[in-house]
Structure formats: structure tokens, C-alpha cells
């Protein structure tokens, strides 16, 4: 192992000694795959037959008219199998796992999208699968937990720390330091120790490569501004990578503004001033931490963005000012989502709706000849409980109460029958 | 420095004991009492862990101890002040164990300088490989302190030799894969593994991860120089109180 994986001062590999050979093996497999054009071809074939690649770009005509400014286009990562860009990374790592001859995969998950994607991959490739998920997230994302378990994965609720994504990552590492011989840790975002940030971005770059070609084909030119939400940063890295060498294209990363500034109120590491540089979870980046270096609680309406750190590659792009970072508040996000649903019939996930919210703020003041591209990184079916709560939908509440009564009646019946036996 | 201390002690007995506490767990007063009872029971050296919110390499017992210490109000200032009190009160050597972010946020050079000031002899930073630790290693060398690294059953001979180059004091060897505090089967393979460790370094070997009983301790005799008891002493304290820890250590050493 050499000193490697740095993007200026960010990145690195701060790992327990026992994982050093495992990371050496992973790096070798990754670099070998990257140098092998057949690997990428196999990956693209898999994604076009098992998932829905290339995902289209949709012209949001009604939203465009509504705002009266820039033309709004949307990259449809929600059309991937399992409903999010997470599939891109997971299927790529699945192919790598096969190459390394490992039989088991583990993963952390926040919203559950990466967990579902990993469980799907494990089912398809025949791997054993364990998913670590913060207990708080298990409670708010039951539909995803349901599907993971149906696919044969073991879902382990993590009660430690703040019981969210970062704690799930720690727990996955604890599993890995025990079971590294037959197990691959399919980290879900462009964070963690080298080579994960680079490798995950590589798999996700399929988004940007497609989007660039599609824009040129459709409009004969590149978009002026490109928006993506940023939790760990994998969908943003994926889309941005297609335009990194086009300086005329503005790249905008949108973080979780939550309830506003102040530690504990949001998960905006770069858009707000609350985060400082530190080292945790195996890499160096901006973290929401206190002066002692203890990680602090974060908040977001979307579980997938509720994370203390951010991709070291994005931290570098922030410092070099190649990417502009903004934050959208919980309220703005829910409103943006509702508007996209009403005007276009699109159902962006709460995570993706952060990108929509920021684009909606900027579109009206842009010229009609200008073009905006938004990454719809996932769909909101999984968020139905959270969204229904946020907009306080009375019919949904009625439905849940009714459903609960049904279950309760059935339970009571069972208990009675048992009593009679 | 630690190397000489360990070698001197080994003149009088053939196996030393190192124990571990988490500063501020369950309270700083209890930390002091724990050290006192451990030293009185005959412990030869001790690790003082500065709590961190993300202790990636620790198992459930020490993980919980870190979290509870922080919840109870542990801070860097208080942990350093307690460490200073401890080193002033007892004349065995103490090491810091913590994660890299604690050093990084404090300032690596400042942290190591502080260690020197308060008479901490060495450090174990489990998420800092020598490749990432050049600032730390330089500062430790400059201050005459001992950076301790970890041999694992996965470390190749080449890797062990590299770790040896960057280590002084003693070599921490883990008996198995995994995190701290889980069960270890102490069997014949362990002897072979420790023999390999001996081949890679002439530093004293300290063996940890899963040492729980007098039988484990006796098994290590003749194979390693220092036995490390971490999670088990914390478990004893949680189950039976601070006052049970002294007798527990004595039962191991009897």
C-alpha cells in the first residue's frame, strides 16, 4: 500500500492495518478492470439489459413554461432498475466481486436505495448479502427494508451513535475486518478510503457520459448549468464527470439545507460554514464535527443526504471552485417535488428534489435560450410515508389508520384462537 | 524508551500485562479509580483511550464505552487533564490509544508535544497506517515517543517488516481478524503466527484481541512478552462495578 487516492489534500486511506491487504486486492482488481475495455463493455451490456440504460433525458416543457426562463431538461436515473442511480455503482462492484472470487457482499444504506440495489445485485449474482442500516432509517424506510429481506438479504439495524448512515458505515467496516477473505464491501457512495471515491465515481460516470452525448444529440450543444443533489456525492460525481472538461458548463451541487444553518439542523458540509476538515470513516474531507473532532448529528428530510461527510473529490472541486455548492431546505424540497409531480408527472425522490429546488430558484432569472440539466437520481415511491407526512395528506392518514385497524383485528383474532387451543 | 522498560521488567517475570481504559467512561473519577486498582493489582503498562465518536476498529464493548463517555460530557481538554493526573500519580508507563481525527483536529505536532509534556510514552492510532502518518511519525521521533503499530494475521512478511521500521517501544499483535472484544480461540496456529512475528521484529511483542481469562494469559506465556486485556476489564466493571476490576486483574496474575 502506497500513499494514494488524494485529490489535493482530500481523500487518502485511513484504514485499520488488518484491511491493508484487502484494499491492496481491491485496488488491483479495480485498476485491472479499468484498464480492460472488455470489462466496461460487459458493464454497459449488463446495465442495458438488466437495468434501463441508457436512461433518457426528458424535456420538462411545463416546468420550463411555468418558470419562463431556462429550458429545463431532466436526466432520468429514476428509471434504473430499483429506481435510482445506485444500481450503476452496485452492478459494477458486483462484477468486480465476481472477478475477485468473493461470495458475499455487505453494504451500508441510508435511505435504503443502496441497500435494495445491493440486495438485488446479490440475488442476481448469487452472493450472500448483509445490509447495515441505521435503526432510525430502518424505522423511516420500511418499504425498502421489506424488499431487501424479500431478496434474501439480512438487514441489520444499527443502534450505535446517531443510528444513521455513518453508523451503518462503521458497522459494515466492523463486519469487513472480520470477514474480508470471502466478503466484498460494496460501499454505496463516492466516499470512504481509496479506491472507493474514485471507483464509485467511475461506475457512476456512465450517467455523465450518456448525458453529454444526449444533450449534443438533442440540442446540438451542452447545458449551461447542471444540477445534482449531494449526500455522499455519487450521483453528482456521475453526472458532473461528463462535463468536467467543459468549463462553460456550470456544475451545481445541492446539499441538504434541512431546517437552516447551525450544527444539527442540516447536512450541508460545503454550502454552509459549519463543517471543517477532518478524517473519519477512512478518508479526509469536510465533516460536520465539533472542535474536538467528534462527529455531530445531522438532519435532513431525506435519509439519503443525511450524512456527516462528503466525497473527497467534491471537497476538492469545491476548493478549486469547479463546482458551486448550494443548500435547499426541507420545505423547499417538498414543494419542488410537489411541483415536479403536478407539472410533469415525474416523481423525484426527496434526495433528487434538492437538485430540482435549486434549479427552480435559478431558472426564472436565466435566458430562454439557456439550458438547465437536472439529475433525477431516484424516484420517490420509497418516500411515500415521509412525503405524505410532510404535506399532511388526510386521505393517506385515513388509509394508514384503516390498514392498521385491519392488522390489529387480525392479530387479535390470532391471539384469541391461540387462547382457545 | 518503552522497549527498555519492557526488557528490564522481563528480567524479573516472563510475561507482562497491559490493560486498557476509555477516559471518561463511565466518568473521569471512575477512570482514576480504575487506573489505581489496575496499577495496585500489578499491571505493567496501560493504554488510555481518548474517546472518539467513530471508533471503527473497536467492537461492541469499547464502542459503547466511547459513546457513553461522550454522552457523559467527555472532551479533549478533560481527557488530557485526566491523563496528566494519572501519569503524575502512578509510575508505570501510559500510552494513548485513539483515532487519527483526534490528533488531526488538535494539530498532530501539538498533540504529540502535549503527550511529551504530560508524560505519555507512546501511542496506538489504529486508523493511521505508516503511509498516512508521516507527520505523526516525525513528531513522535522528535519527541522521543513510541509509535506502536499493529501486526495482524493478514500481514505479509514484507508488510511486517515495513511496520517494524516505523514502530518503537513494542509491537502490538492481534490474535485474530475482527474488532476488539470478541472471542479468540487460542490454539496451535497462534504459536506459529507469533513465531512469524518474532522473525519480523526484535521489538517486544504484545498480544491482544480476546484475552479474557487466566487460561488465555497462561497460554500466551513464553509466546509473547506482553498480554493485553482490553474489553474484558471493561466488561467486568460494567457487570460488577469498579471495585471488581482489581480482583479480576489479580486473579489473572495470581
What does this structure look like?
The complex is a heterodimer of chains A (421) and B (254). Chain A has 421 residues and is α/β, with parallel strands linked by helices. Chain A folds into three domains: 6-48 and 84-196, 3-Layer(aba) Sandwich (Rossmann fold), CATH 3.40.50; 52-80 and 204-386, 3-Layer(aba) Sandwich (Rossmann fold), CATH 3.40.50; 394-420. Helices cover 46% and strands 17% of the residues of chain A. Chain A has helices at residues 20-34, 37-49, 61-67, 86-100, 113-125, 135-140, 142-150, 165-179, 196-219, 234-240, 312-319, 330-344, 350-362, 384-390, 394-420; strands at 6-7, 10-11, 57-59, 71-76, 104-109, 128-134, 154-158, 183-185, 225-229, 250-258, 276-280, 283-287, 323-329, 371-376. In chain A, the strands form four sheets. In chain A, strands 3-4-14-9-10-13 form a six-stranded mixed β-sheet, with helices on both faces. A four-stranded parallel β-sheet of chain A has the order 7-6-5-8, with helices on both faces. Chain A has a two-stranded antiparallel sheet with strand order 1-2. Chain A is globular. The mean pLDDT of chain A is 95. By secondary structure, chain B is an alpha/beta fold. In chain B, 48% of the residues lie in helices and 14% in strands. Chain B contains twelve helices and nine strands. Chain B has a nine-stranded parallel β-sheet. In chain B, helix 2 packs parallel to helix 12.
Amino acid at each position: 500500500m502506497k500513499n494514494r487516492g488524494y485529490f489535493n489534500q482530500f481523500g487518502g486511506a485511513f484504514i485499520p492495518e488488518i484491511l491493508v491487504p484487502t484494499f491492496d486486492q481491491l485496488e488491483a482488481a479495480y485498476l485491472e478492470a479499468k484498464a480492460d475495455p472488455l470489462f466496461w463493455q460487459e458493464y454497459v451490456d449488463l446495465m442495458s439489459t438488466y437495468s434501463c440504460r441508457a436512461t433518457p433525458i426528458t424535456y420538462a416543457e411545463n416546468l420550463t413554461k411555468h418558470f419562463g426562463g431556462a429550458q429545463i431538461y431532466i436526466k432520468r436515473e429514476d428509471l434504473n432498475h430499483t429506481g435510482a442511480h445506485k444500481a450503476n455503482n452496485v452492478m459494477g462492484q458486483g462484477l468486480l466481486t465476481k472477478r475477485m472470487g468473493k461470495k458475499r457482499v455487505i453494504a451500508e444504506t441510508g435511505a435504503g436505495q443502496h441497500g435494495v440495489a445491493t440486495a438485488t445485485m446479490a440475488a442476481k449474482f448469487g452472493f450472500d448479502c448483509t445490509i447495515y442500516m441505521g435503526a432510525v432509517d430502518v424505522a423511516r424506510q420500511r418499504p425498502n427494508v421489506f424488499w431487501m429481506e424479500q431478496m434474501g438479504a439480512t438487514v441489520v439495524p444499527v443502534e450505535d451513535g446517531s443510528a444513521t448512515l455513518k453508523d451503518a458505515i462503521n458497522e459494515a467496516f466492523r463486519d469487513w475486518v472480520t470477514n474480508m477473505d470471502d466478503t466484498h464491501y460494496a460501499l454505496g457512495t463516492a466516499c470512504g478510503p481509496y479506491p472507493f471515491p474514485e471507483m464509485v465515481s467511475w461506475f457512476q460516470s456512465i450517467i455523465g457520459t450518456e448525458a453529454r452525448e444526449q444533450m449534443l444529440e438533442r440540442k446540438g450543444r451542452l447545458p449551461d448549468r447542471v444540477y445534482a443533489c449531494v449526500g455522499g456525492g455519487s450521483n453528482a460525481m456521475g453526472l458532473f464527470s461528463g462535463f468536467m472538461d467543459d468549463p462553460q458548463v456550470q456544475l451545481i451541487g445541492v446539499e441538504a439545507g434541512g431546517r437552516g444553518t447551525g450544527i444539527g439542523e442540516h447536512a450541508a458540509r460545503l454550502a454552509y460554514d459549519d463543517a471543517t476538515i477532518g478524517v473519519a470513516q477512512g478518508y479526509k474531507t469536510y465533516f460536520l464535527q465539533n472542535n474536538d473532532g467528534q462527529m455531530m448529528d445531522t438532519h435532513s428530510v431525506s435519509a439519503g443526504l443525511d450524512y456527516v461527510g462528503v466525497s473527497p473529490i467534491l471537497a476538492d472541486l469545491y476548493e478549486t471552485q469547479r463546482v458551486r455548492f448550494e443548500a435547499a431546505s426541507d420545505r423547499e424540497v417538498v414543494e419542488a417535488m410537489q411541483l415536479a409531480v403536478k407539472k410533469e408527472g415525474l416523481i423525484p425522490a426527496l434526495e433528487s428534489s434538492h437538485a430540482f429546488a435549486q434549479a427552480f430558484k435559478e431558472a426564472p432569472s436565466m435566458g430562454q435560450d439557456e439550458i438547465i440539466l437536472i439529475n433525477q437520481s431516484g424516484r420517490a415511491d420509497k418516500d411515500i410515508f415521509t412525503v405524505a407526512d410532510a404535506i399532511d395528506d388526510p386521505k393517506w392518514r385515513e388509509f394508514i389508520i384503516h390498514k392498521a385497524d385491519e392488522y390489529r383485528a387480525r392479530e387479535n383474532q390470532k391471539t384469541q384462537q391461540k387462547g382457545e387451543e | 524508551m518503552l522497549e527498555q522498560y519492557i526488557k528490564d521488567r522481563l528480567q524479573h517475570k516472563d510475561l507482562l500485562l497491559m490493560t486498557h481504559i476509555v477516559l471518561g467512561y463511565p466518568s473521569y473519577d471512575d477512570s482514576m479509580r480504575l487506573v489505581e486498582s489496575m496499577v495496585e493489582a500489578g499491571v505493567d503498562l496501560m493504554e488510555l483511550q481518548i474517546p472518539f465518536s467513530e471508533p471503527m476498529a473497536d467492537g461492541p464493548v469499547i464502542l459503547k464505552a466511547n459513546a457513553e463517555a461522550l454522552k457523559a460530557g467527555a472532551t479533549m481538554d478533560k481527557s488530557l487533564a485526566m491523563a496528566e493526573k494519572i501519569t503524575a500519580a502512578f509510575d508505570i508507563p501510559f500510552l494513548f490509544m485513539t483515532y487519527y481525527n483526534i490528533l488531526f483536529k488538535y494539530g498532530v505536532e501539538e498533540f504529540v508535544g502535549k503527550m511529551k509534556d504530560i508524560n505519555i510514552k507512546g501511542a496506538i492510532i489504529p486508523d493511521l497506517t505508516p503511509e498516512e502518518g508521516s507527520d505523526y511519525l516525525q513528531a513522535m521521533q522528535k519527541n522521543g515517543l513510541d509509535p506502536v503499530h499493529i501486526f495482524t494475521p493478514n500481514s505479509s512478511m514484507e508488510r511486517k517488516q515495513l511496520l517494524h521500521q516505523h514502530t518503537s517501544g513494542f509491537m502490538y499483535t492481534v490474535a485474530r481478524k475482527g474488532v476488539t472484544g470478541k472471542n479468540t480461540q487460542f490454539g496451535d496456529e497462534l504459536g506459529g503466527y507469533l513465531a512469524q512475528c518474532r522473525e519480523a521484529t526484535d521489538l517486544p511483542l504484545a498480544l491482544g484481541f480476546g484475552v479474557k481469562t487466566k487460561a488465555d494469559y497462561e497460554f500466551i506465556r513464553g509466546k509473547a512478552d506482553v498480554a493485553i486485556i482490553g474489553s474484558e476489564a471493561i466488561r467486568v466493571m460494567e457487570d460488577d462495578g469498579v471495585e471488581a476490576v482489581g480482583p479480576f486483574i489479580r486473579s489473572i496474575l495470581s
